[in-house]
């Protein structure tokens, strides 16, 4: 899942991004509304965690632009105000969910994951294919009943491949969904991660390389 965090309190923004990355999400961070609009115009995001009171361009205007463009991106709006009227107004603008500050990080993560599931064709909470079972919420992976410990990027790559339901996923698509924009697209990070993931999943190999196209399960 790829997430954009838009928050002008930089310490909070960076802390949220770090926490979401530990949950195997690809996260980009910006600190004002104008930068958010720039990123949205370049990258495809599953979820935008959007502070409402932003400098340069207000969060409401960022949300309206996402709706105007007809993007499948879901918006989780954050605000320091807990008033019901503010929450209603944010939802009427086009936000998909609303979370007042201060918030528990576990709740933020759960809401981001719930919104992420709504950006594509609905899939079961637990993904299963080729003897592999992946639970995104519990961050657990099993193969034929054996639990497998994966690093966050390995987990993210496996989740993207399972969600493709047998379709080929290119290295570029994996970079887009499992890494953030600071990753050099010319590195071999995808190949190395897939290689390590194959080793951890064990034999027989379930991740197939399709020459010139990408990978599939």
Written overview of the protein:
The protein is an alpha/beta fold and 217 residues long. The chain folds into two domains: 2-117, Response regulator (Rossmann fold, 3-Layer(aba) Sandwich); 127-216, Winged helix-like DNA-binding domain superfamily/Winged helix DNA-binding domain (Arc Repressor Mutant, subunit A, Orthogonal Bundle). Helices cover 41% and strands 20% of the residues. It is built from eight helices and eleven strands. It has helices at 10-22, 33-42, 59-68, 84-93, 105-117, 152-163, 171-178, 189-201; strands spanning 2-6, 26-30, 47-51, 74-79, 97-100, 127-129, 132-135, 140-143, 146-147, 208-210, 214-216. The strands form three sheets. It has a five-stranded parallel β-sheet, sandwiched between helices. A four-stranded antiparallel β-sheet has the order 6-7-8-9, with helices on one face. A hairpin with a 3-residue loop joins strand 10 and strand 11. Helix 2 packs parallel to helix 3 (59-68) and helix 6 (152-163) crosses helix 8. The longest helix has 13 residues, at 10-22. The two termini are 18 Å apart. The model has no long low-confidence stretch (mean pLDDT 90).
- Could you tell me the radius of gyration in angstroms? 18 Å
Instruction: Give the count of structural domains.
Output: 2
Strand fraction: 15-25%
- How far apart, in Å, are the first and last alpha carbons? 18 Å
How much is the average pLDDT? 90
Q: CATH class of the largest domain, please?
A: Alpha Beta
Outline the low-pLDDT stretches.
none
CATH fold-level name of the largest domain: Rossmann fold
β-strand number:
11
The major sheet is characterized as: 5 strands, parallel
The arrangement of helices and strands along the chain is: EHEHEHEHEHEEEEHHHEE
